[in-house]
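User: My notes are a mess, but here's the protein and pyridoxal-5'-phosphate's SMILES. Can you give me a structure?
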Amino acid sequence: MSTDANFEPTLAEVDPQIADIVSREESRQSSVLEMIPSENYASRAVIESVGSVLTNKYAEGYPGARYYQGNDIVDEAENLARDRATALFGMDHANVQPHSGTQANMAVYLGLIKPGDTVMGMQLDAGGHLTHGHSVNASGKLYNFVSYGVDRETETIDYDAMLELAKEHRPKLIVVGATAYPRQIDFARARAIADEVEAVLMADMAHIAGLIAGGAHVSPAGHAQVVTTSTHKTLRGPRGGMVLCDQKYARRVDRGVFPGSQGGPMMNVIAGKAVMLKEAATPAFQEYARQTVENAQVLAQTLEDAGLRLVSGGTETHLLLVDVTPLGLLGKVAAEALEVAGIVTNYNTIPFDPQPPTIGSGVRMGTPALTTRGMRAEEMKQVGGLIARALEVHQDEAALVSIGAEVAELCEAFPAPALSPR
Ligand SMILES: *Cc1c(COP(=O)(O)O)cnc(C)c1O
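Assistant: No problem, the inputs look usable. Here's the predicted complex:
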């Protein structure tokens, strides 16, 4: 292989199969209504950073204290990312190395508590995440997780019950944050509960980090001592994670990431996180965050008007949990029918769901990706109408395909950002 870049073969030349897959996936992403609430379109600037030669550098350790030579330049990237993260979220310290949201959570557990310690987290079927103590996840195997849920009537977090549970079990750490919860989280209330039992409060803002950055959701800063996140959801960055914390926990968090649970950081992804943080600090991103929530609320209203039931009665965030049983459907059937029409969502359990997670009574959907494409309230009414019609004709393949033609038109009118570097 030549080392002259002009003779370096392209991806299409080296591996036509993978080149074709990338190209077909790019077409798919731009030709469907991408409504999985944890997905988004990273900017070309972010994707360029991730696809850069920074992937070649080994940088175990932290800026100024690496276990490898030649890190002066990549140190600058990590310092930029750290400074931008602390400024944007108003926290003392940032660790931008976690490879994912899951790794960020594991690093905090490893750094702050010991195996066997008691932790409180939100139940999976109430909207919590696997890493908040589910039995199949390392968190549930290593630590003694106690779960809180939502109130049966309001389907919102029952903070009084949470306090009682905390008093009974005296956890060292309380985790708030969710993956399928449409309401804002009351971080101040959660901190008061943690203080009452002398626990540390960890806010996992994986889903809502972009809303928080853009001022469209209350911030955990000043309440949670430790905050974890994914970077590729509403924050619209590269696939990865981050931890932010009070100075007091900085050393323990850093050690939880490296050497606790990771080796060398992905410097290309850290550069992408720095770009993401720069983008998220702009007025345009604030407008994006506000519009994302407005869009979710318009969509929720449209679906409710069409006879569907919204878990908790609506949304204050970027996502909706739709109970499809009033239409005589189940989650999996509904999500599969929507996909035939080009509307990509995921089936989900709803609180106190009689169905197992492999079927679910609900469909989870969100507006982050559609809002990145520039869609607004008018389009959300149209999308809501298409969803309602698709669910109605869910057994009629031809009817679903014809709805798909309308979906394709809408997608053409609102093109996805240029995805791959060209
Ligand atoms: C998505 C998510 C995570 C995990 O993120 P990954 O990057 O997929 O590992 C953790 N916590 C919550 C609440 C999430 O929604």
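The chain has two domains: 49-280, 283-413.
User: Great, I'll file this with my notes.
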